[in-house]
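Re: the request from the purification team.
They wanted to know what the chain is likely to look like in 3D before they choose a buffer screen. I agreed to run a prediction and write the result into the notebook, where they can find it.
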Amino acid sequence: MIKNIFFDLDGTVVNSEEGILQGIKIAMDKYGYDIPNYSVLRKCIGPPFSVSFPEIFNVSEDDYPMVLKEYRDFYESGGMYKCCAYKGIEELLLALVNRGYSINICSSKPENSCKAVLDYLGLSKYFSDIVGATKDGRIDTKAQVIEECFRRAPWKKKEETILIGDTKFDADGAIESDLTCIGITWGFGTKEELLNAGAKAVFDTCEEELEYVEQN
């Protein structure tokens, strides 16, 4: 029986594309990296930057700390607020809370940014905890964030918990941590990649998500 739901943030609860992509372009341009086309840029929303910057943008190991700092300076000085909640998300969160489910944010975004964005959108009140990555890299991957969620709430059982996310990185992290992943299609991944990565089901609407949770 599902009792706990961990939500990814970017691409699942919040459409953060504008602020993230603008910050990446600023950082890449400053350090002389080519800015790829839109379809490639979008691939960086989901995985940790420690993965996407070297693999997608070919940022060198030496440049990575500076590029990341440039991005974060833009993002934390206001870029993070170039976002909105997806249609139907607040209604879904309210329905889940009213039905007695415990819901968390479980994100590879730095935790302070997660909290700031959710406060800005008025959504923090729905979550029992907001858990994200640490800036020092100690907690970075989705699996590491998942384990931190359980460390803070050891009474929660994995067999009673699901992760809802929009990319294969969510599915990969869930499986690594022995959780069921449920995918959604309105974010930055695709149904095919989520299913190939091991998502148990993938849904197109918040109503379908709620029905799945209630039936399981």
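For the purification team: Strands lie at 4-7, 14-15, 84-85, 102-110, 129-133, 161-165, 180-184, 201-203.
Please add any questions underneath this entry.
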